[in-house]
Each structure stands twice: as structure tokens, then as C-alpha cells.
Specification:
Shape: elongated
Number of strands: 6
Strand order of the largest sheet: 4-5-3-6
Number of domains: 3
Number of helices: 14
Structural class: alpha+beta
Order of helices and strands: EEHHEHHEHHEHHHHHHEHH
Largest sheet: 4 strands, antiparallel
Distance between the termini: 33 Å
Length: 489
Amino acid sequence: MGDEKNVFLRIVREEDENDGGELTVDFGAIFRHLKRWFAVWLCLAVALGSLSGACGLLARRYLMGKELKAAVRIPSGYDIAKVSSPGVIEDALNETGMETSALESIRKAINIEGLIPNSVRERMSMYYNAASKQTDKLDALNALLSTSYQVSDYIISFDYPSAGMSQKDGANFLNALLRAYQDYCVAVYNSNSTLRNPLGAIDYREYDYAEAANIFDTALGDISSYISQVSGGSGAGAFRSNQTGLTFSDLSNLASSLKGIDLDRVTSYIVIHSVSSNPPDVQITYYEWLIENIARSRAVQRTRLESLTDSINAYEKDSIVILAGAEGASVAPGLENLNAAYDAMIQEKLDAQAQIASYNRSIAYYETVIEGFRQADGGASNPEDVEAVKADLESLNQKITELAKNVSLTANEYYERAAFSNQVPILLPAVHEAPGLGGIIKVMAVLQALLFLGYLCVGFVGGVREANSRKEREEPSKVRPEAAENPSA
């Protein structure tokens, strides 16, 4: 090795005098070993990459062939079968932007399965086994028949390959289907009352000015009653609509302002100036007849109110009965209906009282109008007064229409977001479970890195062994100087 140049690193280990040596690392030898094993490493890398990639793609294809699943919980009495109804499916397809032409194949790919707890299954199985073994099977059979369970949790499965969808599209559709079913339940099963059009198909311009003002008064009364009814719900006090930016308190204040300021102003103007489209004597005769008609309706309501009051006073609302041996408190059979009837009578009484109050208000209003016409000089209304009243009525009509629209939007949003937001909770949404190409590439990269590390280790160990073997062959064994000076040692 006299003239040959090698790049090497010599590591000397110094221990006790009986155990010493040095380790030579020759980078040229390591490079030669890496070059020697390069073809083997390359073949193994290609084979490992092909194998891992094929396995990853097969696993992805296998997972993509599975059904997608999601879980929902519904209250008692709801029809879970409506999940696969054409209307709900069409709403889901429209939300995801998919074509509705394959609706029937999609409907067939949806499967619904109820979840029954193991404890219920075991109890029913126990009763069944007892009924099949006992000679007197009547008790066991009655126990089996009395065991019932109302399923509330359901698994919704979707076989997306048969519907011609990818797994990603299938997951998006299944989640959209559950949201569409939630909207369906809110629209069909909720108990909220809707605000009818307070002005309906009535055109106030076809009535006399005083009558038009009374129509607006009735409309504002209906709106205020509806706001009071909805605002008594759970969470309604703090609810603010995203669409209108208003709370029910804001809407109630707006209704009170329209009634206490705008409507009172135009009503007082009509009465004080005796503004009418007809002669005063004709209007007086009409309003007198109207008062008599309202008085008759008020008398009917008073009779109904007295009957309801007597029935309520003679009615004893049943209390909760604790059944011995039962799990917790329960209401005896039939008592729920009795209590519901009592509550219904209370509500009827309140409605009758409100109607009588409305009649009294209308009678007092028309009496004031009649007094104003009687104090008039009997001539036609001043054209300037007529134009002023028309402008005020038109402005009031627009404000009431806008108020009714805001009340309806706010109430609908409240029912959807707050009152019935958890009516049909989605326990488990559909998830895209199959690994994507990115996951497969990561696995392949890790395997290739491990193989390359093994390749480097083989080259390093081979190079070190070659360098140390060559050193041992080229350099004869030498005795340490210390040993030569002390032969006895």
C-alpha cells in the first residue's frame, strides 16, 4: 500500500494495556460496497415500491367499495322512512348540485336500520327462552309481550357505488340527505304556529277611512298576539335573527309604536275632522248597525266565557300518581288526556277574554267616530283632510306589511335555529374513510427510506470490515514498546 492513496479515518480505542486496538473507516471502501450493492438496492426499491403501491391501491379500492354510514336520532312518532322519500332525496341532490335523473337508483341504495340496546335484546331473549321451556307459558308470554322498546337511534347506510357516485360525492350526498330530513321534520312535525297575513286579501282602499283604520288596528293586534306567543318559547328572549337583525322584543316595540303613534294619529285625525268618503248621516247609520252587530257577537262570547269558567271551577286537575314498584314516577294511564283537556279549557277561556276585549275596543272606537260625525256640519269632508288621511293610511299599510314580513322571517328562523335545532340530531355524519393517494405515497416514502437506510448500513459495515481486514494483512503484528522494555510483563 506504499503508493496507493486511500481516504480513511482511523479511530483508536484506548483501554487497558491488555485490550487495545484501532478501527479504520475507509470511505473509498464504503463507496465501493455501496456501488457493489447498488443494483440490488435498486431492484428491491422498485419491487417494494410496486408492491406497496399495489397493496395501497387495493386497500383503497376495498374500502371504497363499502357502504357509507351515518347515525341519527329521532323523537317518538317521527317517520324515519321519509329519509328515503323522493322529496327529501331531491332536496339533498339540489343542495349538492347533482342531477335528479338517477333519483330512483339512489333511493334503492339507501338502507335504514334501527339500533336496539343489548340490554333490551337480552331481556327479550330471556323471556322468549322462558316461554319456550316452561309448561305454563302464560306468564312468560305476557312478560315477553309487555316488553317493548321505542327505537330512536337509526343507522342510515348508502351504497354509493350502486348509485353511480364516488365515495366523496356519496359522503356529501348522505350528509345533505340528513340535513334535508331535518328540514322536513321541522316543516312537518313542529308545533309552531305561523303568522297568517294580517291584512290578507283585504284592500283597505275599498273601505271608508275609519273602517280602514279599524282593519289596521286588528292587524296590529294579531301581530302583537303572535309575537307574545312565540317569544314565550325556550330561548326566544335572547334570540336575534340573522336575516332581519331583530329580536322579538324589537318587533314587539315596533308593533306598539305603530299602534300607539301612527295608528292613533290617523284615527284621531279621522275622528276630529270627520273625514269620510260618504255623507255623515250615512256613516252614522252604518256605524250604529256595526256596533249592534259587534254587541251581539260580544254577548255570544260572554256566554261562552261563563260556561268555560264554570267548567274550569268544577274541574279538578289530576296530579301525578306514583306507582309502587315502578322505576321512578309515572302518570297513571289516562291522566295525561285529562290534564290536556283542562289546559285546553284554560286556553279557550283566555281566547274568549281576548275576543271580548277586542269587541269592547271596537265598540268604543265606533262610538267615538259616530260622535265626531254628529258634531260635523253635515257637509263633505275637506279635500285636504282626505288627502292627508290617504297618505297616512298608505304609509301605515306599508309599515304593517314590512313588520309582518320581519315577524314571519324572525319566527321561522327561531324555530329552525333555536326551538327545533336539535329536533333530529345527527349523531354520526358520513365520513370519507378510504385513504387517498397522498396517504399511499406517504407509506411508500417511509418504506423506501427504511430500505435506503438499510442499503447505507450494508455499505458502511462492508467498507469498515474491508478496511480493517486489509490493514491486518498489510501490517505485521507488532509488540508494544512497553512489552519490549519489560519482558517479564
